[in-house]
Structures are given as C-alpha cells and as structure tokens.
Automatic annotation (TrEMBL):
<dbReference type="Pfam" id="PF05004">
    <property type="entry name" value="IFRD"/>
</dbReference>
<protein>
    <recommendedName>
        <fullName>Interferon-related developmental regulator 1</fullName>
    </recommendedName>
</protein>
<feature type="compositionally biased region" description="Basic residues">
    <location>
        <begin position="1"/>
        <end position="11"/>
    </location>
</feature>
<feature type="domain" description="Interferon-related developmental regulator C-terminal">
    <location>
        <begin position="375"/>
        <end position="429"/>
    </location>
</feature>
<dbReference type="InterPro" id="IPR039777">
    <property type="entry name" value="IFRD"/>
</dbReference>
<feature type="region of interest" description="Disordered">
    <location>
        <begin position="1"/>
        <end position="29"/>
    </location>
</feature>
<comment type="similarity">
    <text>Belongs to the IFRD family.</text>
</comment>
<dbReference type="InterPro" id="IPR011989">
    <property type="entry name" value="ARM-like"/>
</dbReference>
<dbReference type="InterPro" id="IPR006921">
    <property type="entry name" value="Interferon-rel_develop_reg_C"/>
</dbReference>
<dbReference type="Pfam" id="PF04836">
    <property type="entry name" value="IFRD_C"/>
</dbReference>
<dbReference type="InterPro" id="IPR016024">
    <property type="entry name" value="ARM-type_fold"/>
</dbReference>
<feature type="domain" description="Interferon-related developmental regulator N-terminal">
    <location>
        <begin position="27"/>
        <end position="330"/>
    </location>
</feature>
<dbReference type="InterPro" id="IPR007701">
    <property type="entry name" value="Interferon-rel_develop_reg_N"/>
</dbReference>
C-alpha cells in the first residue's frame, strides 16, 4: 500500500463529505461595549450591519425565542463574511450577551450562543481580545457542562471550548485546563462536582474530536508516559464501540498521538513518570503493547464488513480512514489530502493538519469555504494562501472606514496576526525539543 493511494483516498473523502459538512452547522463581569470606536465621520453602516445591530439589541429581550432568532441571524452573518467592522464596535456587548445566554438560556439558545462565540473568536484571531473571550467564557462553559445531558448542548459547548482555547490560549496551562475539562465529561473525577452521567456516543465523539483538535496546538518539552498510556488505553477501548462515529474519532486521535509522541525519548530518569514512582522503561513497554493492540484493531476496522443498518458511505469512510491509519502505523506514511477552495487547492500532509481541517470544516459548516478564502487566521493555521486574494483589505472591497481600521498598525487584526505568528514560531521550536502528554485522570500534566 503506497503513499499515493493514501492521498487519493483522502482527496475523495474530503470531496464526498463537503456537502454534508456544509449543511451540518447553520447550528462574568460586565464588559464595556465601547472599547472600540470609529472616527466621528465614519460612513453609514451597510444594511447587513444594521441587521446585526438589531440582532444584538434583541439579545437583551426577555423572550428566549427572540434571543434564539437573533443568535441565528448573527451566526448566519458571521458564517457568510468576516464582520470586522461590527466586531470592532460591538465586541464587548456580543461577548457579554453570548455568555449571558450560555448561563441562562435553553438548550437551543446555549447551542447557538456557543457557536456564535466560537465564530467571534475565529473572526478576530489570536489576540488580547480572544484571550479575554477565553478568560470570561471558560467558567460559564465549564459550569454549563455540569447540568443536563442533552448531546446537542454538550457537543456545542465542547466545540466552543475547543475553538476559544485554540484561538485565545496564551499559555500551555490554558490548553491543559480546557483539555482536562473535556476529559472529565467522560471521566469525571471523584469529588469534582461533575455530574456523573453515562455519555452518549455523540458526546464521546464530540469530546474526542475537540480534545484531539486542542492536542494539535500543544507544545510540551516533557512527556508523561503514564498519561500517554492512560489516553491511548481509553481511546483504544473506543475502537471496540458499536457507534461508527466514535470509532472514527478515536482512530484519528490515536493516529495523532502516535504521530507527535516520541515515547522513546521520554524513557529516562528525569521523566515525569519516574518522578511519580513509575519505571519509565515499564511504561514504555506498556505503550508499545498498546500500540500493537491498536494496530490489530485498526487492521480489523479497515476491512470491516457492513453491519446491520450501516450506511455504506459511513462504512467506506471508516475503511478509508483506518487503511490510512494502518499504513501510517506500519510504514510511517502520514495521509495527504487535497480539497478545492475556489480555484485553489488546500492540502494537508500530516494527521495534525487533517485533524485541524476536519474540525474546522465541521464547525464552520456552510461558511467554511468563505472563511478559507478570507480569514487570515485560518490561512496561518492551515498553511493556505489563495492565489486570488479575497481578503478584507483589498482596495475594491473596503469602505473608507475599513481602510482606516485595518491599515492602522494598532488594529486588533494586525496585532492578532503578529501575535499568532509569534506563537506558532514558539510552538515549532518547542516541538523540536519534545512532545506533549495529556493526563487523562490526574491534576498534574
């Protein structure tokens, strides 16, 4: 089995799944809303901004159905374009009202508010403002996970937590905290005040996907073999579950772990496992045993026969994925994928990139292509540069007010780009030193 065949399979997978992904989502202290201001002689806002202003005002209404409709309007606008001017003026108010909806809203309102919050973060990009989103929203998101077991509600919260952490996380501790919150949804700690519920397949799938998405962004120079061992063991158990979406999510997460984990480098006397009283060599041997078990599971899933009620498309997606995982585990070839964005090609060549791409496609749904054409933060994350620039900033697309806003070196978007690139450079340097281990059931990482 060759690397070229892997590339063909993934190109087919991405193309065949695009229609489904495009239709999958259409789903505190007081913050001053005047933190941004425009010049006094600013032009009259376009009609779309007037609709957004009306929707934002409606978030203050008492009737939940009114707030839900307003959130849908905001999501639609943010999906279909980068609402930079609106965000510059109304960032604080939108953030505050989304958090208020998460705290007091119905299941539907919470799902909408968390999605709007994630879109707000992705519109701004990595900056002080998205760090404020992370700081102010994590307590509300964490608390919302403790009440109720509706899969849609919990999945939307997990996805939002992943997005705001990925964009706004400024330190390793931010990401570790969010990943631990996610893990506790399916593995609640004793005495943690987390409601012990039996997670549904949909919740498990969302948790694993969100957790793996954050794992792609982590930089760590210490590897805790015992933590890796626990994570691999749990994910391996998911490969035996009946639900296909659970198996696919677990398979991607395991491939990612084996791609970024240099376990042999951690079997030394200063490893965290040794400090915790575990012998590093024994932990390494255990991980090697788990890898052999995963390899056998992957072989079986790559040729699984159709089961009762199984959709053929889902079965083919599973077979293709696990054939690629098998090729990776046996021969070291990471999958290559390619999809068209307008007239340009978006390509990936690692499990880390593929996990990021799949998560972003799912989160944006029908807005993915639009954001890939215009969103510079996504360009930086996925290494994509459109040949034809559709970016806010081109002379023929900007109003005079936008030109003043985004050409200014003090614009939060310019700051965001600089800060994000600096962060990525630090991560790249760190990965040359070591890798990260997530502690599945302990407080220490």
């Amino acid at each position: 089995m060759g690397k070229r065949s892997s590339q063909r399979r993934h190109a087919a997978m991405l193309d065949s799944n695009s229609d489904d992904d495009n239709s999958s989502v259409s789903s505190s202290s007081t913050i001053r809303s005047d933190r941004f201001f425009l010049p006094v002689n600013e032009e009259v806002l376009p009609e779309k901004d007037g609709l957004l202003d009306e929707a934002l005002d409606a978030l203050f209404e008492k009737r939940s159905s009114t707030r839900e409709k307003a959130l849908m309007t905001i999501i639609d606008a943010f999906n279909n374009g980068l609402q930079h001017e609106f965000v510059e003026k109304k960032f604080g108010t939108l953030l505050h009202q989304c958090i208020a909806s998460i705290k007091k809203g119905s299941t539907k309102e919470i799902s909408l508010a968390t999605h709007a919050l994630g879109l707000l973060a992705l519109t701004i990009g990595s900056s002080d403002y998205t760090r404020e989103i992370l700081k102010d929203s994590v307590p509300a998101l964490s608390q919302a996970l403790k009440f109720g077991a509706d899969p849609t509600r919990i999945s939307s919260i997990l996805e939002c937590l992943a997005v705001v952490t990925f964009v706004g996380g400024n330190a390793q501790e931010d990401t570790e905290k969010s990943m631990q919150i996610m893990w506790q949804v399916v593995h609640p700690k004793l005495g943690s005040n987390v409601v012990a519920i039996k997670p549904t397949p949909a919740i498990i799938t969302s948790m694993v996907s969100a957790w793996a998405f954050l794992l792609t962004s982590v930089d760590s120079y210490r590897l805790d073999l015992k933590s890796w061992q626990e994570s691999i063991s749990y994910l391996s158990s998911l490969l035996d579950k009946e639900d296909r979406s659970v198996r696919i999510a677990a398979g991607e997460a395991l491939a990612l772990i084996f791609e970024i984990g240099s376990f042999e480098k951690s079997s030394n006397p200063v490893d965290n496992s040794a400090q915790n009283g575990n012998k590093p060599r024994e932990s390494l041997i255990h991980i090697q045993g788990l890898r052999a078990k995963v390899l056998n599971q992957v072989k079986n899933l790559s040729v699984e026969a159709s089961g009762k009620g199984s959709a053929k498309k889902d079965l083919n997606s599973q077979r293709n994925l696990f054939k690629d995982i098998l090729e990776f585990l046996e021969d070291g070839y990471s999958p290559e994928s390619s999809m068209k964005i307008g007239g340009d090609s978006l390509q990936t060549s690692s499990w880390s990139q593929l996990v990021q791409l799949n998560f972003m496609k799912h989160f944006f749904g029908g807005g993915f292509v639009k954001h890939m054409q215009e969103n510079e933060f996504l360009h930086d994350v996925l290494g994509f540069t459109p040949k034809k620039k559709y970016l806010p900033g081109s002379e023929n697309q900007m109003s005079s007010g936008e030109k003043r806003l985004f050409k200014s070196p003090n614009s939060f978007l310019n700051k965001a780009r600089t800060q994000y690139l600096n962060k990525q450079r630090m991560l790249s340097q760190g990965r040359n030193v070591g890798h990260y281990a997530f502690n599945g059931g302990h407080d220490e990482f």
